[in-house]
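Supplementary notes for students who missed Thursday's class. We covered one full example, reproduced here. Read the sequence, then the structure, then the short commentary at the end.
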Amino acid sequence: MKRLSILVILLANLLTAQGVENNTITICWDTSFSMLSRDMEKEFEILEKIFKRSPDQTVQLLLFDIAIEEKVFQINNGDWSELKTTLTSVVPDGATVYEGLAAKIANKTVYFFTDGNALVPDEVLPVKKGNYVISSALDRNEEFLKKSALVGRGRLMDFAAILPDNIKATAAAKELPNKKEITGTVYIDNVPTNDIEIRIIGSNKIIKTDSSGKFSLPAVPGDSILITSRANKTMKTVPIGYFNKSLDVFLKANVTTLDEVVVTEQRVNAISEDLVNTGNGLKSKEEIGYAVQSIDSEDITPIQTDIRQSVQGRFSGVNLGPGEDLTQVTMRTNATILGNNYGLIVIDGVPMEQNDSSFGSSSNAASSFVNPDNVADITVLKGYAATNRYGSAGNNGVILITTKTASYGGGTGGTKNTALAQNNVYDPEAKITITKSALTKALETYTDMDKAYGKYLTLRNFNENNDSFYLDAFEFFKDKDRKLAARVISNLWEKNIDKESYLRLVALSLRYLGDYDAVQILNNQLNTVKPTALQPFFTEVKLQLEQKEYQAALDRLITLANGGAYGAMDVSPINKSLEREIKNLIFQKRDVLDVTKVAEPYFKNTQMNVRLLVEWSNAKTEFNVQFVNPQNRYFNWEHTSAANSGRIEEEVSLGYAMEEFELYDDLKGNWKINADFLGNLERDNSEPLVLLCSVYTNFGYPSQTKKLVWLYLDGQNPKKEIIALKI
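Structure (token representation):
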């Protein structure tokens, strides 16, 4: 009853105040998705009384969600029917963003109609003395509304506060004023695991993870959570920070006793030392009956700038003459005078064009494009070892080169080359089948985007909680009406404010649209969620480059490459991307840059036919990037627990989700690059995966071009083509 009395008094004060102020007002009308629960009748009652009290007014209307639309109405003799029609016709959609309102407000008297569901931490409404904040939505942020009114010395009219359920909820919240609910998932060996014991250190209360590895418990900043599993012999302590709302905890099984750790490590080392690349995968030297010679990256010195230097003199019976390319290697006495004596070079499982010493041959194959710094290992196969895998093409011996890009640590402790796939023949007639949703089919019948948007709003009533629905709509609008596309995709921000992967998903999508202001807001939010995450820093650089802030971008790149402002960040996972961005920026824009403090190695630009930078929304997703060469041979880069158990954990820990790929013209023709969605680590999680691919052609050359490719993958359409190109 007390709250109702206060509300009546505020309404009376509102009308009194309106009578003494000038006849120009601003109405800020929240049109975001969360306003679906607004009580339009109550809000219209307030407007009716305002215009009855002051019947002749000029009204500035600011309709806002992720963008702001301004309209002006002239109210005469209390007739505000045109304004009412406009407000009635607005269907809530998109994210709640208050940034930009302050710059748009033109009048002293302002009425904010909003639910206060701010998406940006520490944001407040631009309320000033005498302004009114009015909320009728059931699902509102009471704390935000109160804070905004208090800070701005405005007045709050919260209709939902007088409802019995909300009064009870407010009383209950006072019992735990400092507690916040922490949710999370526990993974053991990258698998969500149930029955893991979790408790706050200092408390005897124990909870356990559910069948999906999830947990929830109240905590305060400064608490530490102890996570233990006796069955898996593992434990971990995780501190709760001020910004923590959700946690992903990765543990390894059987690591709590010192003896087991030592024995396991020794066993891994012993196996690793005896494994060699045979062209059919990694095998122990003891298992094969023929000689195989290998060297790894530690045997390749920095002074070797050509791959031939890395091979010359390192293998018995392998010969290269002065000035000869690696493709002109011979591995035995010339067996034929007129025939070909040159060996076969295979890079990441893909045979190169073979040079030919035959009489009259005009072959110009070359391997000079291979960067020794990017070589993980080199293996020489002769005799049966070569012909067993490569047939007659291996008669003169084979040199296998595995790059660091395609080689990484596997779960067994050895090195797995994902390019050396057996039976890796791609059927050129095979078509990737795309199943169109009902929404996509419906939207494709329209050429008028306003009508298409109306259809989307109608169908949304049946698909409010379907992520793919919003992604299908975005895919339709993104190249036709970018404003509508931004509003549509921002719903996933509005609906998943605390989920890092969804924030990334929306940020990647808005980057495709070029909505850099909104991306900056999201990027700041991601940085707040995890201040040491690498991806937001890299995104900041990309935004500066897109907005032609070249000096700021270079300074930030150099700082980041040096480990951040304090040199403490581990940037090794994205170091290659940083190096390429620095070199290319200097090459492209040196005339407008201050490079006096730039180290000398950055002045030597990296060049390639195609550079592919792939960024994705959810680090806890398994997928493949498939490369199909002109010979219809394919190899996969695998983002899976099976291929690399530590990669996903590292991405979550360091806060990045990106990878670099490159193509050179050693194999000319048509290439295809596909993406294949395999699912999320949390098997009950149906969250789609969004990829933003930056495709640079002639990278590092004056003729360099860039194309952005956006696509999403889910269970309905798990495989899509990223791009087809010709080299």
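Commentary. The radius of gyration is 31 Å. The first helix runs from residue 2 to 20. If anything here is unclear, bring it to office hours.
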